[in-house]
Amino acid sequence: MQTAANPWRTVPTLRGEHVVLEPLSGAHAEGLRAIVADGVLPALWYTGVPKVEAVDGYIADALEQQARGAMLCFAVLDAQGKVAGSTRFYDLEPGVPRLSIGYTWYAPRVQRTGLNTQAKQLLLGHAFEALGCASVVFETSWFNHASRAAIARLGARQDGVLRNHRRHADGTLRDTVIFSILDREWPAVRAHLQFQLDKHA
Hints:
Elements: E1 14-15, E2 19-23, H1 29-36, H2 55-67, E3 71-78, E4 83-93, E5 98-106, H3 114-130, E6 135-141, H4 145-154, E7 157-167, E8 173-182, H5 186-198
Parallel strand pairs: 5-6
Antiparallel strand pairs: 1-2, 2-3, 3-4, 4-5, 6-8, 7-8
């Protein structure tokens, strides 16, 4: 008798009109290197976007943490099937149940398009509807104003700021802004995201 896979240890493939989220693998390295090759995204010191020479290590570290059950890691593909970025579920706590969505970065060409809205809709839908989460958390640096605004636009509520909470990639201490969406808020957030997506139809 075959045992069903643990959904908290299994990376799903999530498909929409604007985006496909699939399990991250070494096969995505070339596409991710192309995104960061100009150095623009890695230069944002308050993010964790790897430099072009660090992409292989970035993927290997993500998959090692995934193997330990700490994360579920995705490659983000655009509507044409081209690698457009990366994102993850992390801080997985099935006993609550809750998780965080983050480590998200996209090619500039897909920023401010329907791709991110639909990616978040698919990720949140999986978290609340497939995994039964009571809450989903988003974290970002105090200095990442674009990320803070984007998270708020999703319909997440700001819970607070944790001072000197983590370190940025450059080693400086980070004040982390915490947002969350609760299960009872998900229906309204889902409707809001669909409204936003309809603008890109």
